[in-house]
Amino acid sequence: MAPLPVFIRGGASFSRVEPDFVLIKDGVVVFVEVDGPISHSESPADAHYRVKPFLDEGVIVERVKSGDCNTQEKANLYAKQLTDLIKKRGAQK
Q: What tens digit of pLDDT does each residue of 13-22 get?
């Protein structure tokens, strides 16, 4: 797990992508974006364009509302959902 990693694409189409978390397990890569009331103001289309190079490589992008993981209990439930997703995706390979 990597919190707040930075991915940079150089050249003429320079871009910087900083997901909130990246999880890597059993060949499955998941970007987790935590959306709070003021943390993300981009449009859905802009959000998609920002992560499209990763989607094209098979990365799973998960978005979660900050209120859905703002307690230890909720965070544990969400972590379980992510673990189940990774197991499911790994089984599909």
A: 888 899 999 9
For 16, residues 6+ apart whose C-beta sits below 8 A from its C-beta are 6, 7, 8, 9
Query: Phi and psi for 22 in degrees, rounded to 5?
Result: -125, 130
What are the structural domains, with CATH classification, of the chain? 2-92 (3.40.960)
Can you give the pTM of this predicted structure?
0.84
pLDDT at res. 3: 93
- pLDDT of the residue at 72: 96
Give the DSSP letter string of 55-78: HTTT-EEEEEEGGGSSSHHHHHHH
